[in-house]
């Protein structure tokens, strides 16, 4: 989806020594490598300790671009410590190793990557990823993959509540929802229609230094 945008800035990235990858088996763009073959060929053993030498809690783990409050998107620094702290959110909310977490959120966003994938890595849970959110296929996916935990942003839940009602609306194994930004009227309608799912609403800014969890429901 981002091929044209990548190719537009690729000369500048190459000049700055930045390597670019597609998470696919082949690359349609000269100068961009395909990462999937390397991932599939990687051994299962842990990386040698020297690759982690010098890494501390304050080391930069990644950058996540966020719109913040004004202007163009900016790169927010995610340290190793912040990565681990945000990934532990699922565990704090009751995520278990036997859970199957379903996320349709983009992985360039803190919620999808750090809470969703990171939370599964933290506790050893299974993560089910969908490339695009589909309101009509959401619950069918949950049944197909034995999903027990879903991720959301507020509008996602509103879209689910706006789908035509079905006889099997409550036929699923979802026990918990993790997310943020759900309006109170949507929250009530979601529980009334789809059953007693434990909703763990949280708030945190990618570039911020504090967060909140509504643990009482």
From TrEMBL:
<comment type="similarity">
    <text>Belongs to the ATP-dependent AMP-binding enzyme family.</text>
</comment>
<dbReference type="GO" id="GO:0005324">
    <property type="term" value="F:long-chain fatty acid transmembrane transporter activity"/>
</dbReference>
<keyword id="KW-0436">Ligase</keyword>
<dbReference type="GO" id="GO:0008206">
    <property type="term" value="P:bile acid metabolic process"/>
</dbReference>
<dbReference type="InterPro" id="IPR000873">
    <property type="entry name" value="AMP-dep_synth/lig_dom"/>
</dbReference>
<dbReference type="GO" id="GO:0004467">
    <property type="term" value="F:long-chain fatty acid-CoA ligase activity"/>
</dbReference>
<dbReference type="InterPro" id="IPR020845">
    <property type="entry name" value="AMP-binding_CS"/>
</dbReference>
<dbReference type="InterPro" id="IPR042099">
    <property type="entry name" value="ANL_N_sf"/>
</dbReference>
<protein>
    <recommendedName>
        <fullName>Long-chain-fatty-acid--CoA ligase</fullName>
    </recommendedName>
</protein>
<dbReference type="Pfam" id="PF00501">
    <property type="entry name" value="AMP-binding"/>
</dbReference>
<dbReference type="GO" id="GO:0044539">
    <property type="term" value="P:long-chain fatty acid import into cell"/>
</dbReference>
<keyword id="KW-0443">Lipid metabolism</keyword>
<feature type="domain" description="AMP-dependent synthetase/ligase">
    <location>
        <begin position="35"/>
        <end position="212"/>
    </location>
</feature>
<dbReference type="GO" id="GO:0005886">
    <property type="term" value="C:plasma membrane"/>
</dbReference>
<dbReference type="GO" id="GO:0005789">
    <property type="term" value="C:endoplasmic reticulum membrane"/>
</dbReference>
